[in-house]
Design a protein that fits this description.
heterodimer, A: about 450 residues, Uridine Diphospho-n-acetylenolpyruvylglucosamine Reductase, domain 2, Vanillyl-alcohol Oxidase, Chain A, domain 3, 4 domains, globular, B: Fumarate Reductase Iron-sulfur Protein, Chain B, domain 2, Rossmann fold, 4-stranded parallel sheet, 11 strands, about 50% helix
Amino acid sequence: MIQKSILDALQKIVGPRHLLVQKEDMLTYSYDAAVLDPVMPAAAVMPEKTDQLGEIIALCRKYRIPLTVRGSGTNLSGGTIPEASGIVVLTGRLNKIIEINAEDMYTVVEPGVVTAILAAEVEKQGLFYPPDPGSMAVSTLGGNVAENAGGLRGLKYGVTKDYVMGLQFFDAQGNQVKTGSRTVKCATGYNLTGLMVGSEGTLGVLEQITLKLIPAPRHRQAMVAVYDTIEAASETVAGIISSRILPATLEILDNFTIRAVEDFSKAGLPTDAAALLLIEVDGHPAVVAEEAEQVKALCLKMGARSIDQAKDDAQRDKIWAARRAALSALAQLKPTLVLEDATVPRSRIPDMVRALQRIGQKYRIDIGTFGHAGDGNLHPTILTDRRNKEEFLRVEQAIEEIFDVALSMGGTLSGEHGTGIAKAPFLEKEAGYSSILFSRQLRAALDPDHILNPGKITGV
Amino acid sequence: MADMKELANLVKELEDQLVTCIRCGMCQSVCPLFEQTRKEADVARGKLALLTGLMENMFTDPDGVNERLNRCLLCGSCAANCPSGVNVVEIFIKARAILAEYKGLSPAKKLIFRQLLAHPGRFDALVDWAGRFQGLFTRPDVNAQGTSCARLVSPLLSNRHFMPLSTTAFHKTLPEKGVTTPGSGPKAAIFIGCLIDKIFPNVARASLKVLSHHGVPVVIPLGQGCCGIPSLASGDRDSFTRLVDHNLALFEKHDFDVLVTACATCTSTIKKLWPSVYKNPSPGMQKKLTALSEKTMDINQFLVDQVGIDPIETGLEEEKKEIVTYHDPCHLKKSLGVADQPRKVIRAAGCRLEEMAGSDKCCGMGGSFNIYHYDLSSAIGTLKEHNIEATGCTTVTTGCPACMMQISDMLGKAGSPIRVRHPMELYAQALDKKNLPNHP
């Protein structure tokens, strides 16, 4: 519970319609897309102007109220699950695209702008914002930056962190901090931008984001390679990378996923295939044509049953729409879906695929595997029913083993979903205790009252 | 009022459907209401979480959940785009019924649904009476949409530009025994629908004309009742079930191959909700409901897919043709997947179809949503109005009389000269112009 006087003060900042305290509304801000226990906050506020953010933080600081910022709540590691005594700050109304500068190729946005909306606006000017997380139709750029979101194009174009040129944020005192610049180069001050990206709302609250844009590729060619064994498909992934071709996208789908996706999307995927590789090369038309031929030859040489090229944009869009539907299509099969994103160096993809199959058998659980094979970021997706306690225990054991295997291959617990609550207990395995201690000390220095999204990343 | 534990048990009926939502949040990208408010309780994911909360007995009273559940257009955009396949509309309709049965209907709704709508004869008589006296309280606008507005400042009517009741309902213009026209091929029964009967009788006349022109044998039984969606949207499953009984008994007396309607909402209700929400059907009843559902079809779909139409020769070059745009009713495209057929009808009528941006975005009507949340309904409708105007059309068409009302209101308020018509009206008008005879 929060004292009435504090609620009155919050109401003064955002206006009566944009302070929510009823239990029903609190329930709707108690979860995100991660499979974790919900926690209802004490209040939620929906500011309309970014300077209200600073006032809200200052108030929280004064009364030591925890605050969690929430965009569209699509987080997969529990980063937006609030504290019971805390407030949720909603960025839904902070959704202005402040500037798209085509000459200098950057854009400045408020944190609540939806990723797909920015991507479409930018495209109208012949420019390109590559990071495309699976949830981009709803996810916000503030959330993307806070989680360092990835996507399908990571292999060639990188992830969110590679596009953040500068930030304006409020620190735990409610003071405004500026970092980075609109220039391509910037060598002043600490690289706070780098520190803030992926900090999951634990170091400050984003106010404005300056993002790098690049020229849109002139040509794209999508292909679907069909395999009779998942081993051959995963060997091909390693083969493509080692032959120095960098596709924009290189995705793998196992049979389990193919069937679920086809059932939902009717995109014409071969449901009898053991695995598919969805590949897209882009760039100058001549280069695209040459690389597409090389990729095709390589796939066939490494055991593809067949490989088809998208004939037009409509066909290409259908392939990627089908891929984007993978997560939710799998979700149709069982009530609970646990999506992991343990990532390995890309040459280890064949080993990882084998390990996942072994773990699925060992714990007698259904694991669908798809993901960004080209950048080493697979999405083993476990289908279960959380209400079945005995099975869910096996699921948790399997997840821990997936983590161990990924780390043993020199990988990481999370390629793009973030640490949040879900992976915080395992972070020590990856980074060691002294790294966590360092992070905790950093956090304590910047936020001595522990008001900024407590419990995420560092555990406390 | 029974205790909350009992309510929790009632909601448990929905558990298997509720658990299919994985909280991915993709519904936020298509919900017209969420676009306006950005509040989680306004989007499907939030409402499904609230129902789960009710099931887990988290609340001390059901009012907060009930109020939020009713803030929904039931447009089904979320369901149509839900990769997990959550049957959102059916869940919400059933939940509204569970809550209404638990709480009891409000006295006003009881009067309207139980005493009026569920008795088609009584309802027709009242509307007939109201149609004759409506001029006392409202005055017609002189505009292309033919709307009216309040003569005096009225809190009930606000600044609406609403479609007046027709002075004579369609069914009153028919012979007492109903209509049976000769012809060959599949025989079509017409389900008129309240809004077409009482506000847009011209749509029914046009439909009859078009079917007759193509030699389709038609039967229109008299004494038809409402399809039941208004009752259902308010959670009154009893009145809904009575209306279904009434209509089913009426149509059973006639022999036909297809049940066609020119109202997207009626079609979707008969096809999807009659078989799934009817209260405690016997196995025999369930069979009848399913059989009728399979026979029911939107009139554009019937005309294009089963009858087959050729473009009416107007002799006009493409640039000289009237520019017409088309709004996809949610209950046609998202619920039934009917989108190409009305467009074919419009082109066949000799018009140039100019697509608007977001043609399948909800118009914001949502039946009683428009009554209880007029400000939000108008905000959503205004987006539609802008998109319509941007096409440079002179007529906007849509396959649903409820959308026609909403769009007329929006265009009327904006002072736009754009007319609002049903595709059947355009097609019938084109037949008239060419003086094409009926060939039964």
